[in-house]
Write a structure and sequence with these properties.
Shape: globular
Strand content: over 45%
Largest sheet: 12 strands, antiparallel, barrel
Number of strands: 19
Distance between the termini: 20 Å
Order of helices and strands: EHEHEEEEHEHHEHEEEEEEEEEEE
Radius of gyration: 28 Å
Helix content: 10-25%
Length: 421
């Protein structure tokens, strides 16, 4: 909340009445709410340190301002409440540059009551005081004034967050002429067989975040199938991963004396179900259940996720096989290159140990690496240039070689994050 200067409450003998408190506030100041993207609110909070007389809920003038005790999330939309007078007199230029410049992005609207009337700052304060009185909360107007005008909130309140990191769907259907009389025509569209290309790339999560406990449930899938008339279907990508992790943030430590102070590790555990959406023709559906324990890092710098640890894995398609074990490393980064370009990267590396049941279907290691350069087209829509690589190596003498595959392309991605009430 960014507000005009608030007068001190009058000093009188005895309790301060509601009427005396609200009489010090301008009677015609109307409340407004401005919708600021997370990748722009940082600049707004930095630049308004010497401009805004009164602020609460967020830190002003610091390099990495916190909002409600949390670092600003670039994927979220934040609501900044102010008054029409504050906007016109000293916040106008700052808010104009902070509003979303893209389609589907809301900029501002008046705060209205149940009957559609404009709510004034004075009316909102009076309503708050009366709500406190009706709920028998033992808080004086002076204490309420001090609480509402604090510069920031240091203690994080528990929060549920639903995040769409990526949601892409691609469908291409080509209907060929399928007439042999045109077989010698030097035109691809006249001679190519009919085909269907279906692609889906999804990363959704629901997270609970409190001071000491972090929990999340996550769905990741990647599917791309090419169907050509007269040929067997070919799956270019086929993976679905359901996971749930628990992190105890109440116990964290700095791993090395010379490491950056922002790097703090904490214990976590994760349960991951990794499978195919459809089985490979002539084979059983690959399906693994993995349990991992290790250490994870709090967000620092451009690193959003950093986890490493050991795991045990059961192949659910061949339950008679021995339980596998190994180590795993995950890391994701986010670079916001100005207000318009985002670069994200992801690494998921797994190293497997030897078991008595090893055969040519087993890998010694596999590494997934992805980089994505995104340019927003609308508030919730990006056009992205991406590259995905997969490196792997066999575990037994028959397949003791290294392999590499990669994909490059463009995509339209839906991306957003929202607090669940």
């Amino acid at each position: 909340m960014l507000l005009p200067e608030l007068p001190e409450p009058p000093r009188i003998p005895g309790p301060l009445t509601e009427l005396l408190a609200v009489d010090r506030l301008a009677s015609l100041d109307r409340l407004e709410v401005h919708y600021i993207p997370g990748d722009r609110i940082v600049r707004l909070l930095r630049e308004t340190k010497d401009v805004v007389p009164t602020a609460c809920g967020g830190q002003l003038g610091v390099l990495k301002p916190k909002i409600g005790g949390r670092v600003a999330d670039p994927d979220r939309i934040y609501r900044v409440v102010t008054t029409d007078r504050a906007r016109v007199t000293f916040l106008s230029s700052h808010l104009k540059t902070a509003h979303s410049p893209y389609l589907l992005g809301r900029s501002q609207e008046a705060v209205r009551g149940l009957l559609g009337e404009h709510i004034t700052f004075r009316g909102a304060v009076l309503r708050t005081l009366r709500d406190l009185r009706d709920r028998n909360i033992k808080e004086t107007p002076e204490q309420l004034y001090a609480r509402l005008t604090r510069a920031s909130v240091a203690t994080k309140m528990p929060q549920w967050l639903f995040r769409i990191s990526r949601l892409s769907v691609r469908l291409e259907n080509f209907q060929g002429a399928e007439n042999s009389v045109f077989a010698t025509v030097p035109e691809t569209l006249a001679t190519s067989p009919s085909s269907l290309n279906l692609g889906v790339d999804t990363d959704l999560s629901l997270a609970y975040n409190a001071n000491d406990i972090w929990w999340d449930a996550r769905l990741r899938s990647n599917f791309n199938r090419l169907s050509v008339t007269g040929l067997d279907d070919q799956e270019l990508a086929d993976d679905i991963r359901l996971s749930s992790s628990f992190t105890y943030a109440g116990w964290s430590f700095q791993p090395l004396p010379w490491a950056t102070k922002a790097l703090r590790l904490m214990p976590f555990s994760e349960l991951l179900y990794d499978s195919e959406i459809t089985p490979v023709q002539g084979a059983e559906r690959q399906s693994d259940l993995l349990f991992q324990v290790g250490l994870g890092a709090k967000r620092f710098g451009t690193v959003r996720t950093l986890r490493f640890g050991g795991f045990v894995l059961q192949d659910l398609s061949k339950v008679e096989r021995s339980i596998e074990y190994g180590g795993r490393l995950e890391m994701t980064t986010l670079h916001v290159l100005g207000p318009k370009i985002r670069f994200t990267s992801g690494l998921d590396a797994t190293l497997y140990g030897s078991t008595p049941d090893d055969d040519a279907s087993d890998l010694r290691y596999k590494v997934r690496l992805e980089g994505r350069l995104a340019l927003p087209l609308a508030r919730y829509l990006d056009i992205s240039l991406f590259g995905q690589g997969f490196a792997f190596g066999g575990r037994v003498p028959e397949n003791d070689v290294h392999g590499l595959s990669y994909t490059v392309g463009f995509a339209l991605d839906v991306r957003t994050a929202m607090v669940v009430p």
